[in-house]
Each structure stands twice: as structure tokens, then as C-alpha cells.
Amino acid sequence: MFEADSNQRHTPRMFQLPKFATAPFCPSEVQGTIAVPPGLSSFQKLLRYLGPGLLISVGYMDPGNWATDIAAGSGFGTDLLFVVGLASLAGILLQTLCARLGLVAQKDLARLCRDHYPRPVAFTLWIFAELAIIACDVAEVLGSALALNLLFGLPLWLGVVLTGFDTFIVLSLKGRGFRQLEAIVLGLVSTIFLCFSIEILMLQPAFADVASGLVPKLRLVDDPEAFYLAIGIIGATVMPHNLYLHTAIVQTRVTRPDEQSKRDAIRWATVDIVVALLLAMLVNAAILIVAATAFHATGQTQVTDIDEAYRLLAPITGTALAAILFGVALLVSGQSSTFTGTIAGQVILEGFLNLKIPCYQRRLITRGLALGPALVGVLWLGEGSVGRLLVLSQVVLTVQLPFALWPLIRFTSDRALMGVFANGTLMKSIAWAIFAVIAAANAWLIWGLATA
């Protein structure tokens, strides 16, 4: 069933499952499939390059981020809003490095690790990357199951089981173009953004408080709970699998090999990243602002679980629509990650192991490994355990993040690999500073959970 480094395309017969990796989930199949003809206007070029950033932005607003944003908003109002902004800016810089690496080296991060590191090191990095994808998928399963529970009253365990059928979504896109996938994700991300925009309009937060929240507050360092939540926001923002994923999907655009063409591609890819991740930042900020306005301002300062937030929204706002929009956004958030998780899994499998399998099999493996922990956790710990399980999934992700950041910064700083596009002194300093902050934040978060 496995195939090593084959670029051959196969068209399965109708009603027959594909035997090989199929577009748009297999990056090697869609590499260089989106043309950027010369002579296009700036606006036309922008439209051609917009897309990969949207797929990446999904990881910045998945259900794993919701718990920290809700707890921060209910506990401290808008005081921690600046952390969301700083974490998003750090994410923009790191994803820019990913785009630059993919466009210049024409290889994804996973393949570069396999090519440049000893086999035991590359194999270890592959294991960590797979664990990160599984942990992220656990959060998607729990978020989607919780949304089904809140919206339709389904038992959590049944919601978890139903998420296993999202493989049919993957199969329905078999052989479709990458732009169609990007369009679907655009629709899903726009739905999340629209839901929270309506929530903000309904709640009418004090914008003076929002503006004040964007100003860093060093006094919060002395508050262990606030500092702990700030670390949680940072740790849940940048996903390890996103770094591998982004280096691959930027290669869907046709880039000529000359220096000026690469500069143009990097510039437009950077615009794509900034637009998409600023949208993700607005969504995360909106979640925090909704919690601050609906809960903190009304004295409900201990709201930390997503289901609790859902049940309190209707009586606080005076309309059931607020809770319904919240639940819909949560369901869409969980389902949109289905696409990016599948593609990231293909990137990691092909890059580290030089193997291809059908994308639906990759999806079944990932979702199967996620369903087990999610189902056991819900049945063993009870239906009120989703919040704790979501936090646990984020802890697993934070442990893996430095192992993806290290090679990313090293490769993008390597002049032999990147030439004139290698990181300069300033960029390297900022990147390594972000690495140090994230590593320290992760260590603090894990220590806090271990000693809690």
C-alpha cells in the first residue's frame, strides 16, 4: 500500500477507494499546480497567492485555543488581550520563515530534516511531529463533540464517535484542486469570524477596555494565575504541525528559480500570512472579549470551561442566538482543522519517511489514534472533563513545539541552503528570542500542571 517517491498520478474508478495519495491532500501531487503568470497586476498576484495562510490560520483558532481565551477573559477581563496580540505577531514571524524556507529551498521542513540530520535524530523528530498532530486532532475531536453536545444534546461519547466519519469529507475532495480546498477553508474561517462579530455586536463591549487591554501590563507577572494563563495563550498559539505544513503548501504556487521571482513570491506569501493570521488574531481576541464582557463584567469570573460559557451566554445576553452562534463557531472550528491535519500528516509522512499512502488512510490513522484518548477520557473522567482534556492536548503540543522551531530557525539561517535569503542578524536574534520565550513558557506551563 506504501509507495516511495512516486510522482505518478492515478485516477481511481468510480466507487473505488484510491490506492495512492490524491490531491489536494498530498503536497507532492499539488506542488506547482497554481500558476502565477507574468504580467499580472498587483491585485491579481495577491489573489493568486492568498490561500496557504488561511489553512495555517485554522491552527490559530482551533478548539484548543478557546479554553485559555475564555478563562483569561472571564478571570481578568481584557487585561490579557495584549498577550493574544504579541503571540499572534510571533506566529506571523515564524510562519514567514516557513514560507521563505519552502519557496527558496523548494523542500518542506520534514524532508530537510531527513536530508540533513542523522537517521535517529530525524526519526525522533518524526515521532514528535506525529504526536503533535494526534494531540491537535484530540482537541478537534473534543471540540466538535462538545459542539454537537451543546447544539443537539448528543452525549459526548456519541459526538466523539461521530467525528470519525469526517473521513468522508476527505474522500469527497479526492482529486479536487488545491484552490477548491482553500475556498472551503475560507468559507469555514469566515463563518467563525462572522459568528464572533455578531457576538461582539450583541454584547457591545466597552471599547475603552478593549484598547486598554492591548497595552502590556507588567503587574500581571506578580499574579500567578494571570501569568499562568498568559503562558497558556502563548503555548496554544503556534502549532508544531503548522510549521511543517506551511513549508509544503507554499510550494503549490509556481515560482521561477531566479532571485527576483523568489523575492516576489516571498513578498506575496508574507502578505498572505499577515492577512490570514491577523484574522485569526481577531477571532482569538473576540473570544477573549466575549468572555470578558459576558462573564467578567457580570461577576462570573470563574468561567473556565467551554460548555459553561455556552450555557451562560443565553441568560446573560437575553437571547438564545448568542449561545447558538458560539456553538456553531465551535463546531466549524473543529471541523476546519480536519483538512489541515490531513495535509500536515501527509507532509510529515512523506518528508520524514519518504512514503505515501492514500489521504483517507492517513486521516483514518490520525483520527483513530485521537478517538481512543478522547473517548477514554470522556467515559472515564465524565462529561465535565472536556476542558481538562483540551488543556492536556495543548500541553502535549507545547512540548513538541521547540523540536520543530529549532530546525526551522537553523535551516532559514543556513546560507549554504538559503543563499541571499538566509536570516540576517536581526531576524535570527528575534527568532531565537521567540524560541527562548516559548521554550520557557512551555516549561513553566508543564511545571505548573505537574505541581497543581
CATH architecture: Up-down Bundle
> Assembly type of the shown chains?
single chain
- Can you identify the CATH class? Mainly Alpha
Q: Give the termini separation.
A: 46 Å
- Count of individual beta strands: 0
pLDDT < 50 stretches: 1-15
CATH superfamily: Amino acid/polyamine transporter I
Please describe what this structure looks like.
The chain is mainly α. The protein has a single domain, classed as Amino acid/polyamine transporter I. The protein is built from 20 helices and no strands. The longest helix has 36 residues. The N terminus is likely disordered.
List keywords for this structure.
globular, 0% strand, 20 helices, mainly alpha, 452 residues
Describe this structure in a few short sentences:
With 452 residues, the protein is mostly helical. The chain contains 20 helices and no strands. The protein has helices at 27-30, 42-49, 52-57, 63-76, 81-105, 109-116, 119-152, 156-162, 167-172, 178-203, 207-213, 224-237, 240-249, 259-294, 306-317, 320-353, 359-381, 386-412, 415-418, 425-451.
